[in-house]
Amino acid sequence: MLHRVLLLLVALFALPAIAGDIRFPGGDTPEDKRWDFVLEILTLALQKAPAGDAPDRIVRLPAQMQARRIADLSSGHLDVAVAIGSRELVRQPVIFIPVPLQRGLLGWRLLLANAEGARELAHVQSLDELRPLRMGFVRTFADYPVMLANQLRVVDGADYQGMFKMLKAGRMDYLSRGVGEIFAEHEALHARGDNTLLIEPRLALHYRADWFFVVNPARRDLAERIGRGLDQALRDGSYERVFQQYFAPVLAQARLDQRQIIELANPDFPDLGNQIPANWWWAPEPRRSSVGEAQKPH
């Protein structure tokens, strides 16, 4: 079971805990919703494993690309961050906590398209037919290699905000966005008066991917607390309640059980062996037959 992995981590890193400020690069602007769920899970884990009388204060610093987050954790400028799991990540000089925080939802992707891209996507039935279309992606996003490994036609976006502008300008046909991200992003675009981009209604992409907590190597006390708190939250059902609160509405809205799913391979996902039980990974029920290259479960 997953909580046994966490108990092993707790035993490995058990040291006296220290309370205080916890620096997290999770977006310091209210409209950036990408970090809300993992921040709530971090808060929950710390509450389940208190360090003493002094309350924790999570200090939200500006969002950074993953390579910068890892570097700042290693150098001691951050305390905890999230990172997309990869074979390279588990070799970095940070403490890796092996719990896919969104039960794999990061690898369930919907497509945000401009009008011309939507017309082209309406005819796509397979990965081969998707490949000629121009997918917008930021080169520094950690799952950029997944798109290259599947031979998709990638147009590099300038940055997170810039890729939406490039899509609107017709320099790309569509963006691949996480099911937990796309509806809030689409709503934010509408709030700014941009009604030209739409969520493609028929297709979904899937590959094995998720966020993991990574911790400053000098903060083994913090890693122990997060591991112990996650274990408690998994066992008492509080993690599942937060998961449902955040994702049940968007999963209902996404209708993944009714979409045609194109499977992508992710050869860079870390080999976690039997640490993660198969039923931890979320999947729609009932699931339609997938097309494309199926990914073997880990």
Walkthrough of the structure:
- The chain has 298 residues and is an alpha/beta fold.
- Helices cover 35% and strands 18% of the residues.
- The chain is built from 10 helices and 13 strands.
- The strands form 3 sheets. Strands 5, 6, 7, 8, 9, 10, 12 and 13 form an 8-stranded mixed β-sheet that branches. Strands 3-11-4 form a 3-stranded antiparallel β-sheet. The protein has a two-stranded parallel sheet with strand order 1-2.
- Helix 2 packs across helix 9 (220-236) and helix 2 (36-48) packs antiparallel against helix 10.
- It is globular, with a radius of gyration of 19 Å.
- The model is unreliable at 8-19 and 293-298 (pLDDT under 50).
Give a short synopsis of this structure:
The protein has 298 residues and is an alpha/beta fold.
Query: Any idea what the shape is?
Result: globular
Radius of gyration, in angstroms, nearest whole number: 19 Å
Largest sheet: 8 strands, mixed
Number of strands: 13
Mean pLDDT over all positions: 88
Are there runs of 5+ residues with pLDDT below 50, and where?
A: 8-19, 293-298
Number of helices: 10
Overall structural class, as computed from helix and strand content, comes to alpha/beta
Task: List the secondary-structure elements in sequence, H or E.
Answer: HEHEHEEEHHEHEHEHEEEHHEE
How much helix is in the residues? Answer: 25-40%
C-alpha end-to-end distance: 14 Å
